[in-house]
Structures are given as C-alpha cells and as structure tokens.
Design brief:
heterodimer, A: 527 residues, alpha+beta, eight-stranded mixed β-sheet, two-stranded antiparallel ribbon, 16 strands, B: 198 residues, mainly alpha, Fumarate Reductase Cytochrome B subunit, two-stranded antiparallel sheet, 2 strands, elongated, transmembrane (chain A), Cytochrome C (chain A)
Chain lengths: 527, 198
C-alpha cells in the first residue's frame, strides 16, 4: 500500500470513527449554553450540571462514594472509609483534608461537612475527560490557583480550568476511576495489587478485557452503574455465582461484575476432553484463581508490608529522608516507615464465600499474635464458597496497650500534631483519638497485623492461565488451602509403599523363577 | 513332533493386544497423574488416561458382548480339578523338564491357575477400576449426590489400589507367557492364533 493510500484509509477511518464516538452520547456538552462561562468553584459547576441532571446529586449522595459509610447487611458491621481501619494509612479521620481528595465531593475537611448540600457533589471527578485533578490537602477541591502538591515538595500543580473540564465532560473511564482506585494507600498500586496505573492502557498480557487489543473495557463495563449505584465491591463480594450468563436486557438481581455474569459457569470450550475437566473446576475455584497467575504484573509494584514502627529515622542533618531500591521505588520513608514491595506476586489462596469481617475501631485485639484486620470467611467445599486468590498484606501499626484497640494516627495535615511533620507518635495518636472519639490511654505500642485483598483484576489471556501442575503437584499453589484433595498433590503413602513393594516382590519372584529355569535347563542339557 | 492347534480367534487376539496396550498406557499415565513419575506432564497424563479409559470401556463392552454371544465366557469357570498338579508343575516340574500336566484344547484354553487369575481380573480388578474410575471421571458432577463419607480421596485410593493389583497381574502374566514349551510359544500363539504342542 502506498503512503498516500494508507493515509487516505486512515482519513476514512477517522471520518467514520469520530462522528460515531461523538454520537455515542446524545448530548455534546461543549455546545451547552449553561457551560459557556467561567466557573468560580467546583460547586458552581455542579449547580450547572444539576439544572439538567436534576436527580444526579441525590443519586450520588445515596452511594458509598458519597457517604464513605456502609452497613454490611451480611454481618451488620459498620464499614466504609469514614470509620474503617486498615494497615496502610490506617484511618481517615483527622486526616480528612488529605484523604478526601478521593471523595466525590468538595470540602469535607472535618465532621462539620454538610452531607445534604447537593452543590458539594463533585461531578467532574468521575466524568472529566482529562486535565482535572484533586490534590491531597484540599479536602476534595481541585487546585484553582498554582499549588504546591504537598508542603515543601517543591512540586506544583497548575490550576484546573473548570470551564474547559465541564465542556468536555464524558463517561467514566479507566483513568477517571483509577485516579482514586489505583492510588489507594497513598500511591500507585499500593493497596490492591491488581489495580494500578498500568491498567490505563494495558497490554493484552496484563488484562485481556481492558486491553485496547481486546474488548477495551472500561471499569463500568463490568461495574455497571444504575442511578450512580455501582455494582461490585470488595467489602461485599459475590464470591460464587454458579449461573448462566446474564442476557442483554435481562432483568436480574445478580451482580453484573462477576465473571459468570458474562461467561457463565461452564465457560471452557477448547477441546472436549479438556474443557469438561476444566469446567468441573468451577464448583471449587473462582475463575480468578487460574486466570490471574500473578498480580502487580504491569510494572507497578504493590506494597506487601509496611512497618510504621520505624518512622522518624533522620539523616545526619536531622532531616527526613527516603531510601529507594534498585528500581527507584521507595522502601523507607522517614514519615511512613519501612515498606516491602512486590511485583509479579503469586497470590495466596483462601476459601471465600464473599463474607468479610473487619476489626472495628472498638474491637479488642490480641497483640500476642498477628492481628487479622479482616477475615475472609468460607467453609471448605461449601456450595457458596470458592477458592480465591488474595493479596496478603502485613503491617506493623500502633495500638493502645490498655484498651487493646488499633489506633488511628493524625498524619497528613501539616500542624503541630501531625506525625509526618513532627515524628511524634504520642501527639499524633492523641490527635487521632480526639478526632475519632475512641478512648485512648496514652500508652501505645506496635502490633503486627495482616489484611487480605481479593485479587480479581489483571485477568490474563487464557494462554497465561495456570497449567494443571501449578496445583496438581507436590509443589502445589494450593498447599495451604484446607479441605481439598488433589490428584498429583496428595497420595496415600501407605498404599504406595505397599503397592510398589508387592509389585517389586512379584517382579523379583518371577525373575528368580526365570533364573532358576535357565539354570535348570543348562544343567539338564549338560547331562 | 509338533501338533498345531488354532487356539485364539482373530477377535480374541485383537481384544487381547489392544487391551494390553490400553492397560499399559493407563498404568503409565495413571502413575504420572498419581505423581509417581514425571515422564508425562499432568495435563497430558490426564488427557491420555481419560481417552485410553474410554477406549478400554468401549472395548470391554464389546468383549463382554462377544463372550456371551460366543459362549466363551465358559472359559473362566473356575475349577479345582488338577489345580494341585498344575501348581506343582510351576513349583517343580518346570525345572526338571516335566511336561505340562494340562492339555489345552479349544474348549478349555486355560489351565486351572489361569482360570482363577483371569476370573480375579474379571470379577475383582476390573469392577474396582470401572466403578472407581467412573466416579473419578464424573466426580465434578457426582460430588453433590454422594454421601459425606465418600470423598475424592476415597475414590482415588480405591482406584490406585486396583491399579496396583493390575500392575502385579501384568508382571506375573508377562512372565508366565515365557513358560510354554519354548519361551516364545505362548506369545506366538497370541499373535498368530496357533499354539504348537509337544
């Protein structure tokens, strides 16, 4: 093909494609009169949005993206980022202005935030198509003047042009969801292990569904939203979904973000013999177990462990410092402690029925052994449970030695009590306790904790799926999973010993018999 | 002077040798699945084992049909008559060059020891392998319908036990083929159908 012909083919392609992508929606926001003006604040934009999308704010306000507060109907536990504890940055409260850069609202900086003010809903966070950021420290506001990204960092963010963002509004994308969900725990890939910025434009080998060489799914392709309520959550997981695929247009109460909702429960088709054998595995294994061979495979490391107890080492000049590994990733930060990073990590595996319980701010812990911040429940072999891959995260974090509770430190908002600026645990924990209202004895120590994260993204192409021997061998990946019996992994050693001994004796017996025959034959010939 | 006898029909020979090949394949791939050797990877071993199993099942169904329509099942009726003499032959006479005490005819192809051994294969080893193997094969669909005490582990143990019995049978059987009037006489008979006699 000549360059000219190739060029005209491209032009034709663009001419066909561009109107289609514009016409995908029935409205082009760049033409809306209400958006042809400058905006003074995010709230100002939201008021413009709500003139047409009259119900949008009410819908958002009914979701966890707004409330950060959720009562798990399975366990009755009060969850949600507002009160939940974890092993990463530990807790939200007292640090709101920092953490709420990921809230779909403007201005939640402390308990006085008005959760009923519709203008505080941030439409742009999810619906921008670029050039929109919310900086940590601004309580969910985008920078409207040139702003240092964190105090003393020397890095500056340019102000957001709200009008330009508003006129280029669009559907959610991997990038918009990822702005928060990739960076949980304070950095790219830190928390989940299966969600990081490598998924913005993943190669096929990293994610078969989201790759542009594949179906190019966005998050919302699976996490289907209805009235801004988004399906699928790690704190109430659908662990088993033993049903046929959901038909397009079918009214279904099922979670549309399970593998089975598209693939059904007997998805393997390849060869007759092999496919039925694989399909029988779906009663025991989550799809993710074989189809996500490792997590954090996109080149972004995930945190596997975090030791808060080593916070506060200073360099020879008395200044905080960072230590980096050979790849340039931080493994010690004076403000945060030591990190263990992992890439291309083989998951752990647990029986999981979707029920998770969490240590609550008032749960009494036993510091003599590693404290599980969350527990994945599931009975081995139960019809509602599957073997799931998980990331096991280890932390060493502060607790109250008298009340035996985990403590939330005040860390991020630059003031006299913030750990990241004064390295004083006593002050930081007192300020944290003041904000959460938790009882605090003043005596703190550090306790080892663990936390599980379900691995469900970064689904590899089928040729990268685990081969049989990864589990069916003496080095089985499922060695630590209770209540299963696997051919190739387990065998009855008594029967083996007995069987091979008897077979050996039989062989020996016939060999001796044969030898005697030969000897006898020779002797007969001689006489 | 050697007298010749047409002992094994074409079907019997076909059945015998294809069964032999399948059973050896099944033992080899089965012990690979079991983890006793690593000469086949797990997936190949499972696929080979499963395919050979289906072929053997088909062959057995056909052979059972053949045995009943031809009346050849009578060859396996056990008898104690002369069993002592035959046993004594293998323990002593075979070394002194004594003649085999049992005269094979087309109506009685197997001596009393053979009858017992083959009957054991037919009524003990084969059913154990069939039942446990089919349970194993369809475990994914059966598991929900079997009592709690029966797990895949029990099914696999029975299957492995039967495999060991088959292995022991195979060793002894192969050796005993060399005990004809010449070491290859029995094997030749199983290939050509013609058995030579002293």
């Amino acid at each position: 093909m000549t360059i000219l012909r190739r060029g005209s083919a491209w032009l034709l392609y663009l001419a066909l494609l561009v109107p289609v992508s514009l016409l995908a929606a029935t409205a082009d926001h760049s033409q809306f009169k209400a958006l042809q003006r400058p905006f003074a604040s995010g709230e100002d934009v939201t008021r413009a949005c709500l003139r047409c999308h009259t119900e949008a704010a009410k819908q958002v306000m009914a979701t966890r993206h707004w409330t950060w507060d959720y009562t798990n109907p399975d366990t009755g536990q009060r969850l949600g980022k507002k009160t939940m504890l974890n092993g990463f940055c530990i807790g939200d409260r007292s640090n709101e202005a920092f953490c709420q850069s990921c809230h779909v609202g403007y201005g939640w900086k402390d308990a006085s935030f008005d959760f009923s003010d519709e203008s505080k809903v941030d439409c742009l966070a999810c619906h921008n198509t670029g050039n929109y950021v919310k900086l940590a420290g601004l309580a969910g506001h985008p920078p409207l003047v040139r702003t240092e990204t964190s105090p003393g960092s020397g890095k500056f963010a340019e102000p957001v042009d709200l009008a330009a963002v508003a006129r280029n509004i669009g559907v959610t994308s991997r990038r918009t969801c990822g702005t928060c969900h990739y960076y949980g725990g304070g950095g790219d890939g830190v928390k989940h292990g299966d969600l990081d910025s490598s998924l913005n434009d993943p190669p096929r080998s990293l994610d078969i569904h989201m790759s542009s060489d594949g179906p190019d799914f966005s998050c919302s392709t699976c996490h289907v939203a209805d009235q801004h309520k988004i399906a699928g959550s790690r704190i109430s997981v659908t662990a088993a979904d033993p049903h046929a695929p959901i038909l397009r247009g079918e009214r279904s109460a099922r979670n549309p973000s399970t593998c089975q909702s598209c693939h059904g429960e007997r998805p393997h088709k390849a060869s007759v013999v092999h496919a039925s054998r694989l399909n029988d595995h779906t009663r025991t294994l989550a799809c993710q177990t074989c189809h996500i061979p490792t997590f954090a495979r996109g080149g972004v490391p995930t945190k596997m462990a975090w030791d808060w107890s080593t916070v506060g080492r200073l360099d020879s000049e008395g200044k905080p410092f960072l230590t980096r590994n050979a790849k340039g990733h931080v493994i010690y930060d004076s403000r945060k402690g030591d990190f263990v990073l992992g890439e291309d990590v083989v998951p752990n595996y647990v029986w999981f029925d979707g029920t998770v319980t969490y240590v609550q701010p008032d749960t009494r812990i036993d510091p003599s052994s590693r404290v599980p911040i969350n527990v994945f429940h599931g009975t081995a072999g139960a019809a509602n449970a599957r073997i799931w891959p998980v990331k096991t995260f280890h932390s060493r974090q502060p607790y109250d030695r008298v009340h035996m509770t985990l403590l939330v430190p005040h860390t991020a908002i630059p003031d006299d009590t913030a750990l990241w600026y004064n390295f004083d645990w006593a002050k930081a924990l007192q300020a944290g306790a003041d904000a959460t209202g938790a009882p605090y004895s003043g005596q703190y120590g550090f306790v080892d904790t663990s936390m599980l994260w379900p691995i469900t993204h970064m689904v590899a192409p089928k040729e990268q799926a685990l081969d049989c021997a990864q589990c069916h061998s003496s080095q089985s990946r499922l060695a630590a999973v209770p209540g299963i019996w696997l051919p190739g992994k387990e065998r009855n050693s008594l029967l083996d010993t007995l069987g091979f001994s008897l077979a050996g004796l039989a062989l020996l017996g016939v060999l001796v018999h044969g030898l005697l025959r030969i000897v006898a034959h020779q002797r007969r010939r001689r006489y | 002077m050697t007298e010749r006898l047409y002992l094994f029909t074409r079907f019997e020979r076909f059945w015998h040798w294809s069964q032999a090949a399948l059973i050896i394949t099944l033992l080899f791939s089965g012990f690979a699945i079991h983890g006793s050797h690593a000469l086949l990877d797990f997936r190949t071993a499972v696929e080979v084992h499963e395919m050979a199993a289906w072929l053997l099942i088909a062959l057995w169904i056909f052979a059972i049909f053949w045995h009943f329509t031809t009346g050849q099942w009578k060859q396996y009726i056990p008898t104690l008559t002369n069993i002592q003499r035959v046993t004594l032959y293998y323990a002593h006479g075979i070394f002194t060059g004594a003649p085999h005490p049992y005269k094979v005819t087309r109506k009685r192809k197997h001596n009393p020891l053979q009858r017992i051994a083959y009957l054991g294969v037919l009524v003990l080893i084969n059913p154990l392998i069939w039942v446990s193997g089919l349970f194993y094969l369809f475990w994914g669909r059966l598991e929900a319908h079997v009592p709690d005490w029966l797990g895949l582990e029990q099914v696999a143990t029975v299957h492995t036990f039967a495999a060991f019995l088959m292995l022991i049978f195979l060793i002894v059987h192969v050796y005993l083929t060399t005990t004809g009037h010449t070491p290859l006489a029995h094997i030749r008979a199983m290939i050509t159908g013609w058995e030579g006699r002293d």
